[in-house]
Structure formats: structure tokens, C-alpha cells
Fold each of these.
Amino acid sequence: MRRDLHEKVMGGLERSAIHSSTFSQNDMAMAAGLATLHVLDEEKVVENAANMGEKLISELTRLKGKHDMLIDVRGKGLMIGIEFGPPKPLNLKAAWAAVETAKKGLFTQLVVMTLIKDHHILTQVGGPGVNINKLLPPLIIGEAEVKMIVDAFDDVLTATQKFPGRVWGLSTELVKEALRS
């Protein structure tokens, strides 16, 4: 900040604690903050996040017509939640019931594990006892990465339609662990 502003805000002992933080009152932190704001503006990072998020949500939503376990896709910008629910085919319903009986939300953990193992895409379960996958890609994501993520979800959800198969095969250890705890 300019010296005259600094003196007005922090100029005396009685005013020194008005606006403080361990790392904020130094030139390097100020320069880093200003540089960050400059990059966000110049590279239109916020606009990119909004545009790519809209595209990603739209493309993932399109997969609902192909995969009955995909219940909902929602989000804002690049903060996206993908909700799963029980399948319609009887053999898959039994597999779903088995993993969900062991621990609610375990199906989504199978999706998370398969995405990281097969596609190197890091996601998270939305919380305890829910079948929601949290997808939080970087703000600088581009169209190629959006396609890669959508293709990966399509591949994993296609694999969940095969029982037994590579996704359901992961459930054995998870169910054992869930029953132990």
C-alpha cells in the first residue's frame, strides 16, 4: 500500500493492531496478492471457470440418458456434485445393495477409486453416507480436460454395468473394511 495510507491505518501504536495478520504486513505478501489479482484478471480465470464448469455440467448431465445410476449433476462454476443411485437391472441392484448395506456411500468410493486408478482423475466422496462425487477441477481447465473427464466418467459408469467387473471387484476389500469398522 502507499506509505501515506499505511501511516493513516497503522501509523501509531494504538492503531497497529487494527488490521493485522502474521504474514500480511510485508511487501512480498502485498506483491504476491497484487500479482495474483493481475493474473486472475488478465487470464480471465473466473470467466474460464464459469464457462468450463457450465460445459462440464452439461456434458456430464448428458450421460444421465446412458447410465441409470447417474441421478443428478449439479454445481456452480467448477464445484460440481455428481449423484448416484441404485441401478435398475436385478443383478446390479443386488451388487449395489450389498455395498450400500456394508456402508452407505460405498458405491461412490468405488467410482472415486476407479477414476484415480484408471484415469488419474482425483475426485472425492461428497461426505459420509452419501452417493455424491465431488469434482473440483483446476480453474484453468480447458476443453481437452473437460472431454477427458467426461470420457472417464462415461468409461467408469459403463464398467459399473458389468457385474462382476473391474469396478465392482474393488468392493470386496472396501466391504471387509466397512464391516470391520
Amino acid sequence: MHKLKYKKLWLSIGYLMIIFVIYSSLTPSPVEMNIEGSDKLMHMIGYFGLLGWFVQIYQQKKVQLILAAVFICMGVALEFLQELGGVRYFELSDMLANTTGVLIAWLLVFTPFPKLLLWFENAVINALATNK
């Protein structure tokens, strides 16, 4: 199994993604798109992005499954925290959208998708370094 050369960078980006999702979930005035149904789509994309990012960094299937469970639990917990905060609303449909995003990303674990970041390092970053 090949190792990522810039793992610390990719992890830092991933942690920033988690912080953004948490902030967006708990802030009283999140960024909104004025497209009907976009709220649930944004939930799906956000949680797809989280798991999709981290399965590229952690290649072991057991770790990927744990990450999927963690992100599903995070989505559920954030909904409860929204309700407790009193400025946002608890929505089961948001939990479902979050979980759907995670599950779609999980399905891609069984494809070449988890090697995309490794390919990016080898093809793009190495090509840029060679052209200097």
C-alpha cells in the first residue's frame, strides 16, 4: 500500500472541513442557497465530502467503516445540539441527508475512488515539481 507524501496537509484540510461542517450546523445564520431542496442536498454533499476525503487518507477498510460511523453519529449529534441551542431546528430529514451522504461515500470505498488523492500526489504534484 502506497503512503501519501503530504498526509499532514490532507489531514489538516480534512479537519478544517469538519470544523466548517460543525460551524455551519451550529451557527444561528448559516450560508443558504435560494434553491428549493438545496438544504438537504448541501447536507448530503457535506457529509459525502467528509467521508470521501478521509477514506482517501485512511485506506484500511476497518478504519473507513469507523469513520463512516463517526460521521453519521456527528450528524445526529449536531441535530440534537441545534435543538438545544434554541436558534436552529432539529430535523430528522437533515439526519437522513447527512447519513445518505456518508453512505454514498461509503459505496465508493469499493471502487478506485479512495486512491484519487494518491493519484493527485503522484500525477499532478510530481508533474508540477518536475516542471520547475
Amino acid sequence: MRFMELVARRQSERGYLARPVERDKLERCLEAARLAPSASNAQPWHFVVVDDPELSSRMARETRGPLRLFNRFAREAPVFVALVEEAGKTVTRLGGWLQRRDYGLIDLGIAAEHFCLQAVEEGLGTCMLGLFNERGVRRLLGVPRGRRVHLLITVGYPGRGERREKKRKLLERMRSYNRYAAQP
């Protein structure tokens, strides 16, 4: 698949078929994430893949939010991937502190998108979740103290099969050259 086609096809899936995901496909997604660039090559990530149906069901319950209103579709996902931030290199943390940037979070985002783009190539759908009970997820997965689960990714075969039109700003409204020039 050509890159622009891949990017156009990548969307947040909110419906999955009741079909297990083959581990070789998950391994290729993880390999794509492993190859993602990171600040000072720190690679501050650990991916916990949950493909056990019982544990996956328990993970879905941790994504519903305090009023049980959010992420209802997650119960359909056969696979969850938890992105755990590992301690980065000292030089990266120092640089982040000096620049007031969290390079670890930037790196996790890049790796997560590499994972999701490869998933599209594999015929899979994904959705990144930022709203979840981190304490519950950490407990379920045995994530040690001092480590954060910043993101969950649901993975599975798309259940609705529809490609939604991407509603994005016009290019002319979101870029300028050589000088910042906001467009109304």
C-alpha cells in the first residue's frame, strides 16, 4: 500500500469483529513500533499485549470512565496494547526538563502511530484510548510502581467496514512558510 493511501485509511475503529488477531500480525505491528525514532534513541517504551479473552474483557471494563459512558466499543476489541513509559536516558530527561518538553510522551506517540499504521497494512483496525482507569490497568497487567501506562490501543478486525470521510482543516489553514501566519 502506498504511504498516503495508508495514512488516509488509518482511522479510529469503534467496532470489531469477534475474531482473534493472529500473533504474527501483532508482531509486525510491534516491530514497526520498535523501529520508531525517539529522542536520543532512548526508546522509553514497553508494550504489553493483551490477547487473552478473559483479560481483554477485564481491560475493557477499565476503559469505561467514571460514569461508564465512554469507550463502550472497547468490549468488542479482542486485543489491547498498553504503552508503558520506561525511564528514558538521563540526557533526554535533562534536555526535556530544560526545554519543558516531555520527550518520553512524544516518543510514545510516534511509536503508537507506527504500530497503528502497520495495523492498517495488516488489515486490522485500531483506536488509541487516553481515557481509562490507569490504576486498574496497572494492577491487571502487573505494571510496577514508577511506571505509567499513558495509552491503550484497541486492536481487531474492523466490524463495520466503513471508511469515514476525514474531516480535516484545509492545508492552507494549517501551514505557513518561513513565518507563523495563523489563518482564520
